[in-house]
Amino acid sequence: MHPNPVFHSDDQATGIAFVRSRGFGVLTVQGPDGILASHLPFVTETTRLDAHVPRSNAIGRLLRAQGAMQGMMIVSGPDGYISPDWYGAEEQVPTWNYVAVHLRGTLDLRPDADLRAHLDQLSEVNEQRLLPKKPWTLDKNSADGTAKLMRMLVPLRFTIETVEQTWKLGQNKDQDMRAGAADRIEADGFGQETAALAGHMRRWEKQ
Fold it and tell me: What residue ranges in the chain does DSSP mark as E strands?
């Protein structure tokens, strides 16, 4: 997390809501030979994330071998370069604005019998974002195809213990400078989802 506390939030509900809206992150654990990481989608509840990995995934194999372990889920949001020219003030320097939430907690395997319900929930959550498109369901696949898929996957549960957040959105600048930079990043910026980043910059207040 960024060391400047002005960019932090202690409002856990804000962090969890952001994580839920993203639905994708990087799961990291300490393996026997170093840090392991997997990029994966998930479903978020208030105190946990439910996800899955391929059965051949290194994190899945480690869980089967040693059981529950501590881990971190890193969820990144919109980000973008901020030119000093956009502030409309002298003596500024370039920076990069971004949103990031780190969840620390305990990772464990779920029973294989829970996998189908998890896959149904995961697809339902994401298909709802595509309405009015008729939602896709796993039932559209053949029984044999679904059985083959489920043999390849391992369901996981990540129980959330701490939530750390960085919302680096120019809070150390005055409101006019931040609004000016938001206007320009929306029009001229580069990076991921710069329009969303500009929106955060305009409305963010210390949580």
Answer: 24-31, 34-44, 48-54, 69-82, 95-109, 153-168
Share of the chain above pLDDT 70, in %: 96
pLDDT average, residue stretch 41-52: 96
The residue ranges of DSSP E strands in 117-175, in sequence order, are: 153-168
DSSP-derived letter for residue 171 is: T
Residue corresponding to tokens 């195809």: 145
**How far is 150 from 18, CA to CA, in rounded Å?**
29
28 vs 161: CA distance, rounded Å: 15
Higher-scoring residue by pLDDT: 160, 188: 160
* Whole-angstrom distance, CA of residue 155 vs CA of residue 179: 44
Average pLDDT over residues 122-138: 95
Are residues 10 and 207 in contact, defined by beta-carbon separation less than 8 angstroms?
Answer: yes
186 confidence band (pLDDT: 50, 70, 90): confident
d(CA 66, CA 31): 11
* CA neighbor of 41 nearest in space, from 17, 61, 59, 20: 20
CA distance 24 to 74: 9
Q: Please give the structure tokens belonging to residue 103.
A: 């969840």
Q: What is the pLDDT of residue 195?
A: 76
Residues 6+ away with beta carbon under 8 Å from 111: 155
What is the C-alpha separation between 33 and 119, in angstroms, rounded? 31
